[in-house]
Amino acid sequence: MPHLNKLRTVRTGGHGGDTAPPSAARLRTALTAFFALDGFLFAGWVVRIPAIKHHIGASASSLGLALLGVSAGAVITMVLTGRLCHRFGSHRVAVGCGILLSLSIALPAHAGSALTLGLLLLVFGAAYGGMNVAMNSAAVDLVAAIRRPVLPSFHAAFSFGGMAGAGIGGVAAGHLSPVAHLTLLAATGLVVTAVAGPVMLHNTPDTAATSTASPTSYASTASAAPDSRAGSPRMSPAVRRVVALFGVIALCTAYGEGALAEWSALHLTQDLHATPGIAAAGYSLFALAMGVGRLTGTALLERFGQTRTLVFGGSAAAAGMLLGSLAPTVSLALVGFAVAGLGLANIFPVAVGRAGALAGPGGVAAASTLGYGGMLMGPPVIGFLADWLSLPMALTTVALLAAAAAVLGYVSRTASPNAA
Q1: Which domains does the chain have, with CATH numbers?
Q2: Which of 338, 351, 326 is nearest to 409 (CA)?
Q3: Would the pTM count as exceeding 0.85?
Q4: Which tens digit of pLDDT belongs to each residue from 44-94?
Q5: d(Cα 307, Cα 210) in Å, to the nearest integer?
Q6: How crowded is residue 203: how many other Cβ atoms within 10 Å of its Cβ?
Q7: Cβ distance 122 to 73 under 8 Å?
């Protein structure tokens, strides 16, 4: 392919001596913009849910059913996007989904009923799910091409994009109507896609040809499955089992993200009597720690490899959540949430990246779908257990699944011949 030579790394010797050529650097920047945009737009929509609920006069239950449209659209599309990426290329699908996501974010503000809102959110969810799979698949391709474990940095961009979207959205909520705010978000998304999209479309590395072994343990695993890059969407039973393993690891960690997003503030106020402002800061601190942890992910993977990163991360998250769940004071609980965020930060990117390295876009789709399922499963499971036991005890399940991710991460070292 004409762009392949541009994206090959320049070997300069030493463990960290690979440097990416300018075209790879541009592609990495464009992908980073797409990840940040994804988090920015989704968070911008979330902060306007209360205003849209008021606008359509929805009850809590009818709003909950409408919001399932996002989840349903995302899960259905995630299953299909892997095949679309095989057929049309991850970069083209990512750009197309970026356009659709930008346009569809303006739709919910025009809903007149809960039913209409749910149908419009199906479209938004479909674009969101498709963009997530396509972006991660494109990022896995780039990791294999430049032979550096940079996938966590993209997820850091998503985290910080989400924080920016929530912050700006919170300010906008006091000055702009949902229609005006979401229309501005749509325009922002189209501008970012128009700038970053051409870079994506003109840089499409054939990573099958870059499957030469790398001296770093992560990079060697990233190129372990050239057959998945040859265009066949079918996985052998052995590969399917390994992809499922990494999908379950993603599920275990995404469960914690969903649980903390929905229940951390209530735990701090109800069980530890924190003020509303401090309670809101609980999840913000968790999200900030996760973003910072992802910024250091590449260095951790290059130094320690995948297995140690998974095991250390899961163990730290388990310890942090035990502290956050059972601590007798607000300050200790906040420390626990921060440690949990640092621990969980890189597990999902590693799991999705490994699945993609083994099975291409289909592997990314499978692991992402399982992970997203964990994020959806977390809040209702916590709610059920909180009624049955107590909220602090329910939150300890986050620690339990983080520990399970650590164990499965250790098991994954023998899941493929090249695992670190």
Answers
A1: 4-210 (1.20.1250.20), 237-414 (1.20.1250.20)
A2: 351
A3: no
A4: 887 788 788 888 888 867 877 787 888 888 888 887 888 888 888 889 999
A5: 23
A6: 22
A7: yes
